[in-house]
Design a protein that fits this description.
The structure is a homodimer. Chain A is mainly alpha-helical. Chain A has helices at 8-20, 25-36, 40-53, 73-89, 94-102, 108-121, and strands at residues 23-24, 56-61, 64-69. The longest helix of chain A has 17 residues, at 73-89.
DNA sequence: TCTTATCGTCTACAGACGTAAACGATGAGG
DNA sequence: CCTCATCGTTTACGTCTGTAGACGATAAGA
């Protein structure tokens, strides 16, 4: 179910749907013309591919279609993240954090949030 | 410098070089024939592409070449990880950890290591 | 020196990807 | 009813990827 892999360009389209909810191709294009400089044609192609992959649903509204995400953002985040974790860090989170720590890529804010996060976890 | 992007298959080849140090195509093939079922031809193609991209170096040793990584593993880890963090989590680490926490994907071991990690960090 | 095994390089090829124009159906306005 | 604007669908096309066979040079052994 919804198993196909989502390309970078496709995920940009999905992101618009996640952020703004159901929308017509025109609206999606409006958003992506601004952020990525894409033509309406491009967006239509991507929507078509997402439809075929089952990652997007289309409900007819008169002459046009209203598209909405069929794949949940959290599900997509999981897939992408786990894929990277598996490929690079043996499927675990700690080594990734360790990597960023080694390279001092953790902001004060990151550290603060991480402290709170694992603080909440330790007693479950 | 070493700017080209590395594909999944290519990174498998690099991984062999990182793990076993400089090696001839034959040795790399031995490792990858086992783990991925690749033919020698495939590995040679990949080595060639990595050479062209500057991610691998070749020193001639008699009739053959000895290949070694020109791109450091840590550098590659950084690129891949940061790219994902940027695309999915606003470039920060904490939201990714939060995501895994939400989905109970943090093992006991992860939690233990994360505790130690941020414990070491808090007083720097 | 002639032959052959062994390397690396070149060529191949289908499928995914990014990007977009061309085309065809169809609804709305005249 | 006819025409045009508007959608979605088809077609296009260069590049990258995964996978691998074909080819050509050349060193080593006979």
């Amino acid at each position: 179910m919804t198993g196909e892999s989502i390309s970078e360009a496709e995920s940009a389209v999905l992101t618009v749907l996640w952020d703004h909810g159901p929308a017509a191709a025109e609206d999606v294009t409006a958003a992506l013309a601004a952020s990525r400089g894409w033509q309406e044609s491009t967006v239509k192609t991507l929507l078509g591919r997402l439809l075929r992959k089952g990652a997007v649903r289309a409900r007819k509204d008169g002459r046009r279609f209203i598209y909405s995400p069929a794949l949940a953002r959290e599900e997509w985040l999981s897939r992408e993240s786990e894929s990277l974790l598996n490929r690079l860090y043996g499927g675990r989170v700690a080594p990734l954090v360790a990597h960023f720590s080694r390279h001092r890529k953790l902001s004060k804010r990151d550290i603060r949030e991480l402290k709170r996060l694992i603080g909440e976890l330790e007693d479950d």
